Every structure is written in structure tokens, then in C-alpha cells.
């Protein structure tokens, strides 16, 4: 963000020295440098075959030269893709906001006690390819929103994510189109659907994706605890903002939308309803059977689970990583009347209630006999009095008032920021405010035509969630057009005007969601938990 300050030196006399900050834009080239260095090592054979084993060594995900170049191409495109760029910049700003919100100390396993019991958001056996509460094996320690996130896939016994000999069509991946479940009771606060999905994996993602997370469901479970389930199949989302959901209820299907190299589920627990401005929270899962076919990162790092000593009266991972001991079990791995825990040696399954999972593990949801899970073949809406219901045309009737209004206003604000970024890009290439206004009008017209085409193709039955975002872009265009037509701000460049609109849209976005977080969602979750 300091690179943006460098442009101040171009417009403010006496501050020309700030132009040097533009060099910080070279930071965005670090993925290119890392990829090129890695490819160079492959070419000259400098890979260290004797390197220490890693937890992902047993997993084959086809991230070869072509896949890395495909990823690089996506990084370059994201810079000139306004919706993606808005999210990327907002994640950086959001990390600063998160640090301020937590007064300089972000939540961690040592300080955060989750209020809700969570299950894995999937059924069956899945593999953790990214994520751990241990910093060295974190999904992404920065930005803060993804600090404790997880990426899940399904692998076979050989660690492949698709059968040997098959191509990279998304349908060949084991996890593709598998049900994704609500990890706990809650209220849906945001749903993003309709993002495009490329038909192949292998490092490729859709060149015109509109969101880092792709098709996403965000659920509020308690004050300050939201789950985010991302990269879902377009059109598979079965919930809407305001819907009440139960633990284990299907909400969508695992896909390849958004910033995805191959089909997988991105899951995280966060303290804020927005992905960009949230702080990631460490999460313990109930009823998990886990095994580490390669390196057990907790044992290898000598990591002591801060909550092993009876988190909320449940079991935890021993400090030496050898297994799970329940409080007061005498150290023999068994707890009277609750759960049997096996002492692990790296490839022995560990079971128990409330445990962290780590990269490289194969994990399975194994509910106990008294676990509160939806009954097979019974619709949740039929089991829960007052739950959201479906109309004959498949639309969802929100059962919690106010949620939809917050979502719509948030998208208008995001659209305003997107429009501002387009104007900013125009200023970088030297376009005048008038030219940028015309270009923004053309882009808005194309977006509206696209949405209208979708509506016609869907026979008027499909939801068009992007219309609010387009309204925000229209608002940005109206501001720029008014300034240009009336010459209201003589001497103001398109870059400065675009930057101001981007910041205004971002501030409004934060304000709308703060209102939702403090007023609407808090009451909604309290009501939902009272009904359950």
C-alpha cells in the first residue's frame, strides 16, 4: 500500500521524494521470482534429494512447471482484474484493521477459546493439504484472514487427488462435487454464487474470476465466530442470507471457483463476516479420526497444544505429539464413559473430541453415538421449527430480517471500490477523467448486459447476486461523469479521483459490515441458538 503513496509525489509539489515509494510495487513480483527460482533449480538439477521429509511428501498434486506458470499467469491477471484487485488490496488493509481491532495481538491457540463445537465441514476421509495452528505450517500467516485456514482434498492410497492416467478435467478429481456441510448451527450471513469455474485443474483457474474465494457461504455461529466455506461449484449453493442452518446440513458442493489451482475446499473460522477484514481463528474439530502418512508436524515441531489440558473438559493432543489424553484418564489413553484415544506414532490414527488438525493429515469425521447430526434422508427444514424454507421455485425465504439488506449495501460499497480501482488504473495509463468516465460507462453496460443474459438463459429463475455490485460501479461512474462534465475538480487526475473513490467504497464496505456484525448478526445468532 505504501506504493500508492508514491503517486502523491507526482501531484503534490515539494513531495517529489515520495515517488521513490513506487519501487515497493516490485513486492508484487515476489511470486514470479519464487517460481522462476524454483524452475531454475529444476532445470539445472539443484533440488536437494536428501532434504528432510515434509508432511505433504505423500500427496501428489501435479504442481509441475506448467502448473506453476499457469498460477503465475493468474497472478498477473489479478492485477488488472478490478474485483480481484479490490479483494487483494482489502486483505492487506484488513490485516491492519484486524491488528488494530485486537490491539496489536491477534488471536492464537494460546489465547482463543472457541464458543461453539465444530465438526469437519465434510463427510468421509479427506486430506489436509494446507493449514495448521503452527506458524511454520500455516495456510498463510499473512494476510491475517487466512492465518488458520485449511485446504481439504480427497486422495487415494497413493496420495493422488485424481485417478492415475486421467486428465485434468475437474470431474476427475475425487473431491469435486462432494457435499460441503455446515460445521455447526448458525445463520447464513453471506452467499456468493455465480462465479465462473474453469473446467480443468492442474494449476489453472478461471481467467475472469471475480473473487479470491469464488462461490462462498459464510455462516455466523456465535458472536465473533464465522465459518467461511469457499471455492464451491457455481449453482450448487442451497442456502441464502438469513437462512438458519444446522450442524451437518449441506450448503453447497466442493468446486474449483475463485483463486484455485485444482478442486478443493477452503475452510476457515474468522472473527468478522467479511473475508477481507476478518482475523483468522484457530479451530478445534469434534469427533475427528486423524492419521499422518508422512511427517506429524506437531510431533516434529515439538509443538505443545496450549489447550491440551482439558479444553472445555475435552481431550487434546499431548505436548510430545504422541497422541490424545483425556483429563484425568491416568495417561493410559482412555477416558471413562467418553472416547477411546490411541497413542500415535505418526501413522496411527488419533481420535477424540476437540482437536486441531494439521497439514499432511488424513482426517475423517467420526461422530459419537450421542452426536447431534441431521438424520439421513430427513430435511433440516422439516426438523427445525422456524427454520428457513424453500418455495416452489427453489428460492430461499430468509427467516432472519435485516441480513439481506446488509449484504446488498455491502455489495454496493464493494462495487464503488471496484469502480474506483478502474478509474485508478485509467489514471496510471495516463487517461483523462473524461476518457475514464466513458470507459467506466462501457464496462458497466457490458456488466449489465451479461447479467441480463444470465437472467434470460435461466428463464428468469436464477439469482443475480452481482446486481448490487454493478450498482456500486454505476455510482462510481456517475461521480466521475459529474466531475468531468462540470469540471468540478480542475487539476485532479483520474488516479487521485479513483483512489479517493476506492477508499470511500472500502470505508463504506467496512462500515456496513461493522453495523451488521454488531447489530444484525449478533441478534440473529442469539435467536437461532434459542430455537435450536
TrEMBL record:
Entry annotated with the keyword Magnesium: no
Span list, region Disordered: 299-400
UniProt name for this protein: Peptidoglycan DD-metalloendopeptidase family protein
Residue ranges annotated for the M23ase beta-sheet core domain, each copy included: 177-271
Organism expressing this protein natively: Halovivax cerinus
Positions with biased composition (Basic and acidic residues): 380-393
Keyword entries, A-Z: Membrane, Transmembrane, Transmembrane helix
Biased composition (Acidic residues): 370-379
InterPro entries: Cell_wall_metabolism_enzyme (IPR050570), Dup_hybrid_motif (IPR011055), M23ase_b-sheet_dom (IPR016047)
The keyword Membrane appears for this protein: yes
CDD domains: M23_peptidase
TM stretches of this protein: 20-39, 59-80, 408-430, 436-457, 469-488, 494-512
Amino acid at each position: 500500500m505504501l506504493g500508492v503513496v508514491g503517486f502523491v509525489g507526482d501531484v503534490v509539489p515539494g513531495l517529489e521524494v515520495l515517488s521513490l515509494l513506487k519501487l515497493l510495487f516490485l513486492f508484487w513480483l515476489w511470486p514470479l521470482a519464487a517460481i522462476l527460482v524454483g524452475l531454475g533449480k529444476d532445470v539445472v538439477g539443484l533440488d536437494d534429494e536428501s532434504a528432510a521429509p515434509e508432511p505433504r511428501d505423500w500427496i501428489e498434486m501435479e504442481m509441475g512447471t506448467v502448473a506453476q506458470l499457469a498460477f503465475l499467469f493468474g497472478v498477473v491477471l489479478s492485477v488488472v482484474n478490478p474485483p480481484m484487485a479490490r479483494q487483494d488490496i482489502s486483505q492487506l488493509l484488513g490485516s491492519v484493521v484486524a491488528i488494530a481491532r485486537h490491539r496489536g495481538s491477534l488471536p492464537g491457540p494460546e489465547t482463543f477459546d472457541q464458543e461453539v463445537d465444530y465438526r469437519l465441514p465434510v463427510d468421509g476421509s479427506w486430506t489436509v493439504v494446507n493449514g495448521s495452528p503452527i506458524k511454520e505450517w500455516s495456510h498463510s500467516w499473512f494476510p491475517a484472514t487466512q492465518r488458520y485456514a485449511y485446504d481439504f482434498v480427497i486422495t487415494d492410497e497413493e496420495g493422488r487427488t485424481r485417478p492415475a492416467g486421467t486428465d485434468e478435467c475437474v470431474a476427475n478429481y475425487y473431491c469435486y462435487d462432494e457435499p460441503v456441510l455446515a460445521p455447526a448451527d448458525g445463520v447464513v450471513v453471506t452467499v456468493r454464487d455465480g462465479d465462473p469455474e474453469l473446467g480443468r485443474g492442474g494449476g489453472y483457474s478461471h481467467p475472469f474470476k471475480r473473487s479470491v474465494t469464488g462461490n462462498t457461504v459464510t455462516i455466523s455461529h456465535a458472536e465473533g465466530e464465522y465459518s467461511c466455506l469457499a471455492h464451491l461449484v457455481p449453482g450448487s449453493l442451497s442456502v441464502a442470507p438469513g437462512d438458519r442452518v444446522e450442524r451437518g446440513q449441506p450448503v453447497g458442493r466442493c468446486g474449483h471457483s475463485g483463486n484455485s489451482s485444482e478442486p478443493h475446499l477452503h475452510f476457515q473460522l474468522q472473527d468478522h463476516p467479511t473475508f477481507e477484514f476478518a482475523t483468522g481463528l484457530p479451530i478445534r474439530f469434534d469427533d475427528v479420526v486423524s492419521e499422518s502418512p508422512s511427517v506429524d508436524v506437531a510431533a516434529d515441531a515439538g509443538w505443545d497444544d496450549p489447550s491440551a489440558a482439558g479444553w472445555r473438559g475435552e481431550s487434546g493432543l499431548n505436548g510430545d505429539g504422541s497422541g490424545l489424553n483425556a483429563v484425568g484418564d491416568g495417561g493410559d489413553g482412555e477416558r471413562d464413559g467418553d472416547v477411546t484415544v490411541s497413542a500415535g506414532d505418526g501413522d496411527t490414527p488419533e481420535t477424540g473430541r476437540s482437536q486441531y488438525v494439521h497439514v499432511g493429515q488424513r482426517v475423517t469425521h467420526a461422530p459419537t453415538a450421542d452426536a447431534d447430526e441431521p438424520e439421513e434422508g430427513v430435511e433440516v427444514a422439516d426438523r427445525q421449527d422456524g427454520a428457513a424454507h424453500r418455495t416452489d421455485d427453489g428460492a430461499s425465504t430468509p427467516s432472519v430480517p435485516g441480513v439481506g439488506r446488509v449484504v446488498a449495501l455491502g455489495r454496493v460499497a464493494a462495487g464503488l471500490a471496484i469502480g474506483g480501482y478502474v478509474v485508478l488504473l485509467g489514471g496510471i495509463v495516463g487517461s483523462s477523467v473524461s476518457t475514464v468516465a466513458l470507459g467506466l460507462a462501457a464496462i458497466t453496460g457490458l456488466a449489465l448486459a451479461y447479467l441480463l443474459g444470465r437472467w434470460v438463459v435461466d428463464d428468469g429463475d436464477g439469482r443475480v447476486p452481482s446486481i448490487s455490485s454493478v450498482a456500486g460501479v454505476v455510482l462510481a461512474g456517475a461521480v466521475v461523469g459529474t466531475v468531468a462534465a462540470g469540471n468540478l475538480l480542475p487539476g485532479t487526475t483520474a488516479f487521485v479521483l479513483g483512489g479517493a473513490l476506492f477508499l470511500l467504497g472500502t470505508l463504506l464496505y467496512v462500515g456496513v459490515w461493522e453495523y451488521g456484525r454488531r447489530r444484525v448478526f449478533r441478534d440473529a445468532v442469539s435467536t437461532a441458538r434459542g430455537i435450536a
